User: Which sequence fits this backbone?
């Protein structure tokens, strides 16, 4: 069972993205002409892709129903006092962090309603500096909350517009699968941007090397895994390098001007 779960978590994002792509391309082709034989074959590929997509989405959503139950995970957590370094970090970043929870059996971190939650597993892996870098990322989610929400809204709206334009006049079930595919293909980029933005802001308050090593420890064994909400850790670290290269270029060109 664990093996199946592992395969699902490692590949489902790319399988669902590919199926979404097939569904969208097939829909465009089907709208152009449904009488020619190759287009009849497209109807089959559309249907098979749609069924697979729905099955994968149902499997993917099922643990999240548990996850939302788990959102009350604070019952498995201890409320702690923030250590002085994190209090200082919150002050520096101008953020209100009213409480801090240490969550049992969890390898993660989140900032929700002014409360910071850190998994015990994650905390045990990180050095004090790495923890600060990860927390700076989490604090940025709170600081840039409104911008990120607007961005997510834009992504959803864009997907909806594309689905409406492509799906006008289609049977209701086809339109719903098309909408799901558009969301699956176009929204992740907007979600990934939030993570890159938080990383970029975090390295203004923490050492970039600490954020990199903290992320690698957090994503141990799955640093190449992409998800709907998060790009892979390897991609995030590569992005730091791109940011660094841009700054080196800007800095050296401004030095040359003087
Ligand atoms: Zn994040």
Assistant:
């Amino acid at each position: 069972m664990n093996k199946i779960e592992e395969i699902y978590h490692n590949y489902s994002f790319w399988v669902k993205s590919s199926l979404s792509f097939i569904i969208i391309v097939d829909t465009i082709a089907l709208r152009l002409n449904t009488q020619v034989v190759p287009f009849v074959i497209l109807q089959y590929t559309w249907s098979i892709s749609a069924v697979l997509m729905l099955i994968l989405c149902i499997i993917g959503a099922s643990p999240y129903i548990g996850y939302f139950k788990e959102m009350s995970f604070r019952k498995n957590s201890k409320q702690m006092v923030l250590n002085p370094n994190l209090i200082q970090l919150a002050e520096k970043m101008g953020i209100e962090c009213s409480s801090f929870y240490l969550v049992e059996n969890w390898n993660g971190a989140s900032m929700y309603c002014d409360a910071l939650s850190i998994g015990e597993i994650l905390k045990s892996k990180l050095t004090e500096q790495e923890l600060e870098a990860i927390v700076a990322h989490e604090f940025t989610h709170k600081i840039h909350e409104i911008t990120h929400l607007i961005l997510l809204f834009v992504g959803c709206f864009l997907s909806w517009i594309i689905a409406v334009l492509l799906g006008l006049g289609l049977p209701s079930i086809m339109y719903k699968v098309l909408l799901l595919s558009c969301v699956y293909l176009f929204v992740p980029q907007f979600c990934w941007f939030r993570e890159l933005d938080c990383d970029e802001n975090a390295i203004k308050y923490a050492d970039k090397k600490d954020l990199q090593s903290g992320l690698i420890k957090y994503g141990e064994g799955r640093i190449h895994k992409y998800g709907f909400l998060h790009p892979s850790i390897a991609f995030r670290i590569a992005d730091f390098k791109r940011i660094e290269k841009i700054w080196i270029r800007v800095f050296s060109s401004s030095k040359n001007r003087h």
